[in-house]
């Protein structure tokens, strides 16, 4: 077997059936063998950044390792922003990148690939020799899972046509859902929880799957505690009694008093950054019990009173066990008054606007989109001014159905994530909400990939004809905002030219017409909603 065939076979033997990428000198034969000899599926991206982002989106919704491949030099440097995003988002993925011939000192595509990869925070593995390739790949796959970040496997082009005797090496993924059954930290945590009069349970993105969700709800019931989530776990407790929704700067008016008055947050798999803690407001008068599988996360952003290293489900059940053993009573924090407040709240209560007849309002528009897109969707949001409203008004159903793509603060990453999410979604539709700037930066490049891959994708462009986030800054300083405004082409026509279906929306009636096309969609559709940049509310 040739080395390029052995790499493809090693991928398949490790359960990889889908790979995203863009071919060149150093990976084209490997990709060919993956598809032709091994029956794998290859999604050809239009830009290497897109390939990595697709692998990130795929990994997020499927809980598998995302796999992408690119060739050397400029192909690798094209992935730098996406790799950094993957590192910050803590997503397990492997990037198989080719490398130029070692002897060819003057190859114009040569670059210090290891240094490029390491500069993003991703891990680096070298395919050392043809004989070690199975082990080297298994190491990259194992590290991606354990270290929860992208790992690049550097494949020298020199090897690809060499003969090798293939030996399978399957990456071992141990069950990481450990708990610490006894410790001083655990005793402290239980002491704090037992003493809490107004406890709230906060779930983050680390609470994945129904087992963990159900265990947290059992603890909530036992403690009589309301539940909340971080933004990244948005919608995890949808429909559950005493669900406060998102905890942080995006909290609703119905939830905010409860979150402030609470004397104890019991958090699971949540980062507790300044947004979740509402710039520190939520810390006052509170004790924090933080549970996380990763010890590095505990106390990373704020002081915590007790930190427990452990799996969300098992630790929650352990808390219940000890509360029962000590015959601790429930807190009675869930009362009729709170129930009435939460039941009586409607999303419109927090929206300070009166519908206008002369201009479409982003909030009105997003509320209609929220109702019209099937509820089992995966929601992907790009970055920009619009996102403050999208995060409030577009519902999701937990961390595997919601992808915020701004872990590195970059705009333009949403489309790549969305195409990968559509691949890994098991048939669920994907809703991408993006700004016009983000769409022109990264969306345009990969919308046609979505068309070729027949993604079930609905794109809503909040098109204020501007970099809204910059527009508002010029306005605040009473400066002319011209540098931030754009005369983009007609995006509906662009979407149609790229092989999808485009809809141009200026009024509520146009919007209804576009939304009416959703049930009959037969491929990617793009709804270009024209907004006034002066009427899009700032994020804060
Ligand atoms: C890669 C990158 N380039 C530039 C920026 C700076 N930036 C932040 S928001 C923004 C405007 C985005 O415009 P748009 O997508 O139309 O969304 P809007 O702010 O108008 O809602 C820009 C340019 C960034 N965050 N990332």
**Which overall shape is indicated by the principal axes computed on the Cα atoms?**
globular
Distance between the termini: 59 Å
Distinct compounds present = thiamine diphosphate
Number of helices: 19
Strand order of the largest sheet: 2-1-3-4-6-5
- The rounded Rg comes to 24 Å
The fraction of residues in strands falls at 15-25%
| Major β-sheet annotation | 6 strands, parallel
| Broad structural category | alpha/beta
Q: Roughly what is the average pLDDT, rounded to an integer?
A: 96
Highlighted features:
six-stranded parallel sheet; binds thiamine diphosphate; 18 strands; 540 residues; 19 helices; alpha/beta; 37% helix
Q: How do the strands and helices of this protein lay out in sequence?
A:
Layout: H1 3-13, E1 18-21, H2 28-36, E2 41-44, H3 48-62, E3 66-70, H4 74-77, H5 80-89, E4 93-99, H6 113-119, E5 123-126, H7 133-147, E6 150-156, H8 184-195, E7 199-203, H9 209-223, E8 227-229, E9 243-246, H10 253-261, E10 264-268, E11 287-292, E12 306-309, H11 312-325, H12 336-344, H13 362-372, E13 378-381, H14 387-393, E14 402-404, H15 414-424, E15 430-435, H16 436-452, E16 457-463, H17 468-476, H18 491-497, E17 501-505, H19 508-516, E18 525-530
Parallel strand pairs: 1-2, 1-3, 3-4, 4-6, 5-6, 7-8, 7-10, 8-9, 10-11, 11-12, 13-14, 13-15, 15-16, 16-18, 17-18
């Amino acid at each position: 077997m040739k080395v390029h065939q052995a790499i493809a076979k090693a991928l398949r033997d490790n359960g990889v059936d889908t790979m995203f990428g863009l071919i060149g000198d150093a990976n084209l034969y490997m990709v060919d063998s993956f598809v032709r000899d091994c029956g794998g599926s290859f999604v050809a991206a239009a830009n290497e950044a897109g390939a990595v982002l697709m692998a990130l989106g795929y990994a997020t919704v499927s809980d598998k390792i995302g796999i992408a491949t690119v060739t050397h030099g400029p192909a690798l440097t094209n992935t730098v922003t996406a790799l950094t995003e993957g590192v910050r988002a803590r997503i397990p993925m492997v990037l198989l990148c080719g490398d130029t011939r070692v002897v060819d000192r003057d190859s114009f595509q040569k670059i210090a690939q290891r240094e490029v990869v390491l500069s993003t925070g991703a891990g680096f593995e070298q395919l050392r020799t043809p004989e070690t390739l199975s082990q080297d790949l298994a190491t990259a796959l194992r590290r991606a899972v354990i270290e929860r970040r992208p790992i690049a496997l550097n494949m020298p082009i020199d090897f690809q046509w060499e003969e090798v005797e293939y030996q399978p090496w399957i990456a071992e993924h141990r069950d990481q859902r450990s708990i610490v059954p006894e410790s001083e930290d655990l005793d402290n945590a239980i002491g704090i929880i037992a003493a809490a009069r107004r406890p709230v349970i906060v779930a983050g993105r680390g609470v994945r799957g129904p087992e963990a969700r159900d265990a947290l709800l059992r603890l909530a019931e036992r403690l009589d505690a309301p539940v909340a989530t971080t933004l990244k776990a948005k919608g995890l407790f949808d429909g559950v009694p005493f669900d406060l929704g998102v905890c942080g700067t995006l909290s609703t008016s119905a939830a905010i008093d409860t979150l402030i008055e609470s004397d104890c947050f019991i958090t699971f798999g949540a980062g507790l950054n300044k947004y979740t803690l509402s710039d520190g407001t939520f810390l006052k008068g509170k004790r924090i019990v933080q549970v996380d599988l990763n010890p590095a996360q505990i106390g990373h952003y704020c002081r915590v009173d007790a930190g427990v290293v452990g799996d969300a489900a098992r630790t929650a059940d352990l808390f219940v066990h000890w509360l029962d053993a000590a015959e601790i009573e429930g807190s009675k924090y869930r009362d009729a008054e709170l129930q009435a407040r939460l039941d009586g709240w409607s999303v419109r209560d927090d929206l300070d606007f009166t519908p206008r007849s002369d201009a479409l309002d982003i909030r009105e528009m997003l509320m209609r989109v929220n109702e019209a897109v099937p509820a089992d969707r995966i929601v992907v949001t790009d970055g920009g001014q619009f996102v403050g409203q999208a995060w409030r008004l577009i519902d999701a159903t937990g961390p595997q159905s919601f992808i915020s793509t701004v872990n590195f603060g970059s705009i333009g990453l949403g489309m790549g994530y969305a195409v990968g999410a559509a691949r890994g979604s098991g048939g669920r539709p994907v809703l991408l909400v993006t700004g016009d700037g983000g769409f022109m930066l990264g969306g345009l490049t990969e919308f046609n990939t979505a068309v070729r891959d027949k993604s079930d994708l609905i794109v809503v462009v909040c098109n204020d004809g501007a970099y809204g986030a910059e527009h508002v800054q010029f306005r605040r300083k009473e400066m002319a905002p011209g540098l931030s405004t754009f005369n983009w082409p007609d995006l509906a026509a662009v979407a149609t030219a790229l092989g999808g279906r485009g809809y141009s929306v200026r009024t509520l009636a146009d919007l209804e017409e576009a939304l009416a096309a959703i049930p009959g969609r037969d491929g990617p559709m793009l709804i270009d909603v024209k907004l006034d940049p002066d009427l899009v509310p700032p994020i804060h």
